[in-house]
């Protein structure tokens, strides 16, 4: 799959004087290495719901999984629009926000690819019997959990430390 390259724009009114837009490649580094993401969805009665989860960047999308009975799955069944956020809990580094629609996948080849990405990224947490999410890769492969892809429509980067900046990345469908 050929990587999509977004249009990049510095949001000057929200950035320090002299700040520059963050290249998409730096955001990809954050998305590829972040261990925890925060998923924001909307409940059927329009109230927000936010929850932390594991995620992996696979084929130009953030992938995550959940159980069918979980609140996030119920919310996404009613409204697939969502936001995923990751970054640092301090005033340095880069925070990244992805906006898009969560699309469930049951394709065996995709599930295999996603399971491998999770196992490589989270290793002992997933692969060791005493790991926090032991066996998750097999649950992904076997389809016993819902697996979603969020292909970004828009993303934001918030660079902190030194010259603060806000970058918007817009993806052409």
Helix/strand/pairing category: alpha+beta
* CATH superfamily membership: Electron Transport, Fmn-binding Protein, Chain A
Quick check: average pLDDT? 93
User: How many beta-strand elements?
Assistant: 9
The stretches of 5 or more residues where confidence is low (pLDDT under 50) are none
The third-level CATH topology is: Pnp Oxidase, Chain A
Number of domains: 1
- Main sheet, how many strands, which sense, barrel? 9 strands, antiparallel
Structure overview:
The chain starts with 6 loop residues before the first strand and ends with a strand. By secondary structure, the protein is α+β, with helices and mostly antiparallel strands. The chain has helices at 24-33, 71-78, 108-127, 136-142; strands spanning 7-10, 37-42, 48-53, 56-58, 61-66, 81-86, 93-105, 146-160, 165-170. A hairpin with a 5-residue loop joins β2 and β3. Strands 1, 2, 3, 4, 5, 6, 7, 8 and 9 form a 9-stranded antiparallel sheet that branches. The protein is built from 4 helices and 9 strands; from the N terminus they run βαββββαββααββ. α3 runs antiparallel to α4 (136-142). It has a single domain (7-170), classed as Pnp Oxidase, Chain A (Roll), CATH 2.30.110.10.
In short:
The chain has helices at 24-33, 71-78, 108-127, 136-142; strands at residues 7-10, 37-42, 48-53, 56-58, 61-66, 81-86, 93-105, 146-160, 165-170. It has 173 residues and is α+β, with helices and mostly antiparallel strands.
Layout of strands and helices, then pairs:
Blueprint lengths: L6 E4 L13 H10 L3 E6 L5 E6 L2 E3 L2 E6 L4 H8 L2 E6 L6 E13 L2 H20 L8 H7 L3 E15 L4 E6 L3
Antiparallel strand pairs: 1-9, 2-3, 2-6, 4-5, 5-8, 6-7, 7-8, 8-9
């Amino acid at each position: 799959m050929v990587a999509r390259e977004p249009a990049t724009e510095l949001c000057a009114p929200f950035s320090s004087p002299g700040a520059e837009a963050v290249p998409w490649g730096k955001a990809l580094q954050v998305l590829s290495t972040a261990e925890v993401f925060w998923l924001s969805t909307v409940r059927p009665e329009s109230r927000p719901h936010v929850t932390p989860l594991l995620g992996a960047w696979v084929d130009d999308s953030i992938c995550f999984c959940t159980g069918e009975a979980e609140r996030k799955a119920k919310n996404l069944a009613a409204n697939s629009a969502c936001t995923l956020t990751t970054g640092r809990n301090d005033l340095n580094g880069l925070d990244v926000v992805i906006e898009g629609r969560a699309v469930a996948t049951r394709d065996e080849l995709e599930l295999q690819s996603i399971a491998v990405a999770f196992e490589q990224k989270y290793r002992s947490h997933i692969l060791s019997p005493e790991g926090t999410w032991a066996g998750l890769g097999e649950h992904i492969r076997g389809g016993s959990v819902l697996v979603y892809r969020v292909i970004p429509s828009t993303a934001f980067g918030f660079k902190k430390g030194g010259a603060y900046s806000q970058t918007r990345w817009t993806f052409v469908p």
